TrEMBL record:
UniProt name for this protein: Ceramidase
Domain of life of the organism encoding this protein: Eukaryota
Transmembrane segments: 44-66, 125-143
Phylogenetic placement of the source organism: Eukaryota, Viridiplantae, Streptophyta, Embryophyta, Tracheophyta
This protein's UniProt keywords: Membrane, Transmembrane, Transmembrane helix
Amino acid sequence: MRKRTVQQACGVAVSCCILLMLITPRIPQPQKYHDFADKRQFFGIPNTLNVVSNFPFLVIGVIGLMLCQHRNYFKLNLIATAFGSSYYHLNPNHDRLVWDRLPMTTAFASLIAILIIERIDAKKGTLSIIPLNMAGIMSVLYYDDIRVYGLFQSVSTIAIPLMALLLPPVYTHSTYWLWASAFYPLAMLQETADKVIYACTFHTVSGHTLKHLFAAMVPVVLTTMLAKRSVDSGKLLHVCKVYLNKCSISQIKVEEGAYDL
C-alpha cells in the first residue's frame, strides 16, 4: 500500500513538473549566475573559499568508500563532485558549469536507486541505476534550458524524503535519511542568497560557500547512518512476511489459471 502511495505521489510530482515545463517558456542559463559574491584570492587560488569548500565532499567520499565493503556509486560521485565543482569555481563559466553539476545529479540518481534497492526491490533498484543516471546527465547537458535541470533536481529532492518516510526500512537509523534530505533545500536557499549573506557577514563568508558546506552535510549524515545502522530484525521479518504472502497469492493465481486451462 505504501509503495503504491509513493509511486502515485512521485507520478503526480513528475506530471506537475512536466506540465509546468509545457506551459512556461524556455529559460536559458543566465550569464550572471557565474558572478559569485566572494571573489577573494588566497595562496594564489582564485575564488578560494568557493573552491576549498568542496574539500568535505572528497573527505566524506573517501571515508564512505572505506566503510562500504562493496562498490558505492554515490561515494564515487561525491569524490567527482569535489573535483568537478573545484574546477568550475577556479574559473566560473558556461563551459565548466557542466563539470560542477554533472557529479551532483548522478549522486542524486544514485541515492534514489539505493532507496529503491533497500525499500522496494533489489533487482528493480539495480536496473534503475542506468536510466536514472542517464536522466540526470541529460538534464545537465541540456543547459540551453535550465528547466530540465531544475525538474530533475526538484523531483529528486521530493522523491528521496518521500520514499524514506513512507516505505518500510529494513535497517535501523532510517530517520537519518530525513535529516540528510533537509540539508539540501537549506543549501539551495543559501545559494540564492549568496550576495546577501556575504554582505550580512561583513564580507567574511558568502552564501555559495555555505551552500557547499551544507550540501556536504547530506553525505556526512548518510555516512554516519552507514556507520551506525544494522539490520532491524523485526522490520526485516515483516518485509519477509509481506514478500511470502505475495508469493503465495501469485502461486495461487498460477494454479487457478492452470485449472482453468
